[in-house]
Design a protein that fits this description.
This protein has helices at residues 7-17, 20-27, 34-45, 89-100, 114-120, 136-148, 166-171, 181-188, 191-200, 206-211, 226-235, 248-256, 278-289, 304-312, 322-353; strands at 64-65, 68-69, 74-76, 104-106, 125-129, 152-156, 239-245, 261-264, 295-297, 317-320. By secondary structure, the chain is of the alpha/beta class. The chain has a single domain (7-365), classed as Aldolase class I (TIM Barrel, Alpha-Beta Barrel), CATH 3.20.20.70. Helix 1 (7-17) runs antiparallel to helix 15. The longest helix has 32 residues, at 322-353. The two termini are 39 Å apart.
């Protein structure tokens, strides 16, 4: 079991163990990656307000989320092709969701089908949807999710076209996999991952295998509009979350359209290099939707202090992404559990340092004069 004391440890170990192509797919961002750098810098520049002589001996990391109490203040973002980080990664994440009572985001392009994932997660799973092409395949997936017992649907709206991520393009990454001479050499130089993946079988987009057609990752999703959302709202009886929002005006329109929650996200800086920094957009969106509307947050969270900052800036819940894949690549299910506990510990210690006993925070937790 490798020593994982932070998400940086997990990333460093993953970089050694994963093929270059796979690591750059998970780690990469849009363009020259300035957007990712600005997002990280914004988190680092945001200062918390330490408070002293307050009884913080009992601290609660649980959060009320759509009528249920979670054991952690963060869930698992929907991530495509997770089994690239390690064989069985999707199921590892599902078991974690079941243990912690947090939502597992099940991606449209997951490498395990939606039905076994919600079963393994003991119902703690949300299905993430991409609208693609004319929508015919999209709405088939919605019906399948409904039949499988999903109660929450997450419509991702920030991918009208797939962003260009030069690192993965240079490696020749495609979905489904195509293995040429460069990829063969890459895999040969990482035998531990390659042998394990070979024995487990090539990761593929399982939801589309069951539908009997291939998913084109590069297919345009640009036809989706508010009429698409209205159709989806009429079709879906459960909770409807819209993910990928960075604009306050859009947030207000989505609330008016009847969605149940909004997820502030830049897609991990993987789509638009010049997009606003999500943590800075969060307070403006909170102001637009009001104090009681559910507002979730992902993108750029690397540790417990980041999680606390997101809550202080207006989030009701947060989601972790690639750091969990790095933990799996570093140490399998044990690595995932180790990093999860590290992140919970970091969050709890941060609350103690700022004199808080729960994630019920406001901007009073931000240091006066901080660059909000």
């Amino acid at each position: 079991m490798p020593q994982i004391h932070s998400s940086q440890d997990a990333r460093r170990l993953a970089r050694k163990r994963l093929p270059w192509m796979v690591f750059d797919y998970i780690d990469g961002a849009a363009g020259g990656e300035a957007g990712a750098a600005r997002a990280r810098a914004a988190f680092d520049a945001l200062e918390l307000r330490p408070r002293v002589l307050r009884d913080v001996s009992s601290r609660d990391l649980g959060v009320d989320l759509f009528g249920q109490r979670t054991a952690a203040p963060f869930g698992i973002s929907p991530m495509g092709m997770c089994n690239l980080s390690g064989p069985g990664a999707d199921m590892m994440l599902a078991r974690l969701a079941a243990r912690e009572g947090v939502p597992l985001g099940v991606s449209t392009v997951a490498s395990t089908a939606m039905e076994p994932l919600i079963e393994e997660a003991q119902g703690n799973a949300w299905f993430q949807l991409y609208f693609t092409g004319d929508g015919s395949g999209t709405f088939k997936l919605v019906e399948r999710a409904k039949a499988a017992g999903y109660q929450t649907l997450v419509l991702t709206v920030d991918v009208p076209e797939v962003g260009r991520r030069p690192r993965e393009l240079r490696r020749g990454f495609t979905m489904p996999f195509r293995i040429g001479p460069r990829q063969f050499l890459d895999f040969a130089l990482h035998p531990r991952w390659s042998i394990a993946s070979l024995l487990a079988g090539k990761p593929d987009m399982a939801n589309f295998q069951m539908e009997g057609f291939d998913f084109d990752r590069k297919a345009s999703r640009a036809r989706a509009d508010f009429s698409t959302l209205a159709k989806l709202r009429d079709l879906w009886p459960g909770k409807l979350v819209v993910k990928g929002v960075l604009d306050a005006e859009d947030a207000g329109a989505l609330k008016a359209a009847g969605v149940d929650a909004i997820q502030v996200s830049s897609h991990g800086a993987r789509q638009l290099e010049s997009a606003p920094v999500p943590i800075r957009a969060l307070p403006t969106i909170r102001e637009a939707v009001g104090p009681d509307f559910p507002l979730f947050f992902d993108s750029g969270l690397r540790g417990g202090e980041d999680v606390v900052k997101a809550y202080a800036m207006g989030a009701n819940f947060t989601f972790l992404g690639r750091v969990l894949q790095f933990a799996i690549a570093a140490g399998g299910e044990e690595g995932l559990q180790a990093l999860w506990q590290v992140l919970k510990d970091e969050t709890s210690i941060t609350l103690a340092q700022i004199g808080a006993t729960s994630l019920d925070l406001g901007q009073g937790a931000i240091a006066r004069g901080a660059n909000v």
